[in-house]
Structures are given as C-alpha cells and as structure tokens.
Amino acid sequence: MLLRRYTPSDIPAMAELFFRTIHSVCAKDYTPAQLYAWAPAPPDPACWAASFSGKICFVAFEHGILTGFGDMDGSGYLDRLYIHAAYQRRGIASAICDRLEAATHTDIVTHASMTAKPFFAKRGYLAIQEQQVCRHGIFLTNYVMKKRNARMMYAER
Fold first, then answer.
1. pLDDT, tens digit, 9 for 90 and up, residues 90-109
2. SS3 for 52?
3. What CA–CA distances, in Å, run from 4 to 34, 84, 87, 100, 145?
4. How far apart, in Å, are the Cα atoms of 50 and each of 9, 87, 99, 120, 149?
5. Is 1 exposed, middle or buried (CB count within 10 Å of its CB: 0-12, 13-18, 19+)?
6. Spatial CB neighbours of 28, under 8 Å, sequence gap ≥ 6
7. DSSP 56-75
8. What is the pLDDT of residue 46?
9. Which of 147, 97, 98 is nearest to 125 (CA)?
C-alpha cells in the first residue's frame, strides 16, 4: 500500500470513491433514500477540491487504484474517512487514521456514521452523542465521537 498526502489531481477519484463507498458499504445501515440524501451523486471535483483546502489529507493506493482517503482540519475534526468497498478490512482505514491522529496535538472529534462507529470505537473513540443530521430533507443518524490525543495526555503529566 502506498500512503501519501493527497494532491488536487486525486480529487476526481476521491469523489467517485466517496459516492460508491456510501452506496455500497453503508447500505446495510441506511435506507436507499438516506444514501441518496447523503450522496446524491459524486461530488463535483472542482467544488469538492475547496473542501480540502487547509486540511491534512492522506490517500491510499494499491496497484495504482485509490483504495481510501481521510482528512482532518487543524482543530482535530476528522471529517472524512472512506475506504473502497473492495478493500475493506485490510488495514487501510487504520493506516490513514494513524497518520491523521499523529499529525495533530489536539483531541480528535469525528461524526461517525452507523457503519463507521464500531471502527472508531475499537480505536478508542468514545460516543459523546447520537445525532440526527438532515440532508436534502432526509434525516440520517450519526455519532459525535471523541478521542483523547495520546500526545496531549503525555504532555499533561
């Protein structure tokens, strides 16, 4: 696996992976209406590129195929973590999270889908609250989850 910082040329593949992952991997936890509210179509690459500005973002590739990506902002908000449906449970999400978590000195917060909640829980994230998020008039359940940054805990000693 090749894990590196993303470049703007990765955006079209990232947008497609985002859409396909939601509609395949998350289908066991969300209704078709919820999936289409969450991701009605692959994001427009030109518009989506702006959402990565100023964030730490890593992409993973295997044999030239984009297998996953994740991003975090400067406040420790882990915004997106998506892994290609055919590459689930191969350590890609863990490798991306390891790099993102190591890149910040703050506690880390994410809004985990029902699908991703068990992954984050295994990594030591605690569910702070369940919430209903409205997308295109449809409500989706996700969880605000938080993890103490080990670097902060060490510094407090």
1. 999 999 999 999 999 899 99
2. coil
3. 32, 16, 17, 11, 25
4. 13, 27, 22, 26, 27
5. middle
6. 115
7. EEEEEEETTEEEEEEEE-TT
8. 87
9. 147
Taking residues 30-51, report their average pLDDT: 93
Domains present along the chain, CATH in parentheses: 2-156 (3.40.630.30)
Helix/strand number for the chain, H first, E second: 6, 7
Q: Which of 50, 43, 63 is nearest to 8 (CA)?
A: 50
- When the pLDDT of each residue in the chain is averaged and rounded to a whole number, the result is 94
- For the cut 60, the answer to whether the pLDDT of residue 157 exceeds it is no
C-alpha neighbours within 13 Å on the C-beta side of residue 49: 9
pLDDT at 154 exceeding the cut of 50? no
Whether the full predicted model's pTM is greater than 0.90, yes or no, is: yes
Ramachandran angles phi, psi of 41, nearest 5°: -165, 165
Residue 110 Cα distances to 7, 8, 130, angstroms: 23, 23, 12
User: Within a 13 Å sphere around the CA of 76, how many CA atoms are in the beta-carbon half?
Assistant: 18
Neighbours of 39 (CB within 10 A): 18
CB-CB contact of 110 with 101 (8 Å): no
